[in-house]
Design goal:
The protein is an alpha/beta fold. Helices cover 26% and strands 35% of the residues. Strands 1, 2, 3, 4, 6, 7, 9, 10, 12, 13, 16, 19 and 22 form a 13-stranded mixed β-sheet that branches. It has a six-stranded parallel β-sheet with strand order 5-8-11-15-18-21, with no helix packed on it. It starts with a strand and ends with a helix.
Length: 296
């Protein structure tokens, strides 16, 4: 086990300095433990959080291959403090590249979730386990440089609650909603005035850049792009039906110009020395126009 500290932090429970994956795995199982990571620890298995644990320090926790850093179960509560960094879950092909909140709770007062990747929620994904909603409270720290194939490069709130009060979410990317995305059928999202969300690709309504409505519409967001395609298809369909109606009534447009034809003919008659047209001449013109309109 790692080195136990007798004093220093005001939190209750054991205070432990860890330097290896095994020590970190064991410390995470201790209720109310305060774990200090001041070195770089590479882990080969996801750490399951089933207790109340705080991880802090100036070090980093790195992973590779097809797994994430932490999975927080319903009874688990993980708190990040100081400048601890979770990074390089770059080959992960599931959800929640940095942290997967599976009915548990994550609180960030500090730390950095950086340069991770996943299918959804490159940095953090919040969802439920059976009947317990996952919760995420951000009061500090940074989520940046993460990538998602679908949506929520930084944070994806699927079935849970996210309260973003303070901190920074920036430079994340995804096919849709690069920074933060809350699913409309189960994601509850609150963003405080001190929260900074910017420079994510593509942007969405949560980003704070002063970007025009036009630029937001043309941003290559997968969901917005689908909506634009649907609107265009509806427009094409309506236009096509209108054109068919015009073709079924070919005489309407031509007959609407009958007055113009008569005025032009009257003017031509005056040029030819006639003061007015006879009734038979007018009827002949009307018949000619109608035949042209019917395609006869």
């Amino acid at each position: 086990m790692g080195l136990f500290l007798n004093s220093g932090c005001s939190n209750t429970g054991d205070e432990i300095v860890v330097t290896t994956e095994q020590e970190l795995q064991e410390a995470a199982k201790r209720s109310e433990a305060v774990v200090f990571v001041n070195d770089i620890i590479h882990i080969n298995e996801t750490i399951e959080i089933t207790e109340t644990v705080t991880i802090r320090g100036s070090g980093a926790i790195t992973v590779s291959d097809d797994h994430r850093h932490f999975a927080i179960q319903p009874e688990g509560h993980l708190t990040l403090r100081d400048s601890i960094t979770l990074t390089r879950a770059e080959d992960y092909t599931n959800h929640g590249g940095g942290i997967f909140i599976h009915g548990g709770t994550l609180t960030m007062y500090g730390g950095r979730i950086y340069n991770n990747a996943a299918l959804r929620g490159g940095g953090v994904l919040i969802t439920l386990d059976d009947y317990t909603l996952g919760t995420f409270e951000m009061r500090g720290g940074e989520i940046s440089g993460n990538t998602a194939e679908i949506a929520g490069g930084g944070v994806f709130v699927e079935l849970g609650i996210a309260e973003l009060r303070h901190g920074q979410i920036s430079s994340n990317t995804a096919s849709g909603h690069g920074g933060v995305y809350a699913h409309p059928r189960g994601g509850i999202l609150t963003i405080g005035t001190n929260m900074r969300i910017f420079d994510n690709t593509p942007i969405n309504t949560h980003d704070q850049e002063s970007t025009s409505l036009f630029m937001r519409l043309i941003t290559p967001d997968l969901y917005r792009f689908a909506a634009v395609v649907i609107i265009v298809l509806i427009g094409v369909l309506v236009s096509s039906k209108w054109q068919k109606r015009k073709q079924l009534q070919p005489g309407v447009n031509r007959l609407d110009t009958l007055d113009d034809v008569l005025r032009e003919t009257q003017a031509q008659a005056k040029v030819n020395g006639k003061s007015e047209m006879t009734l038979d001449e007018i009827n002949d013109i009307i018949s000619e126009v109608r035949q042209e309109s019917r395609g006869e």
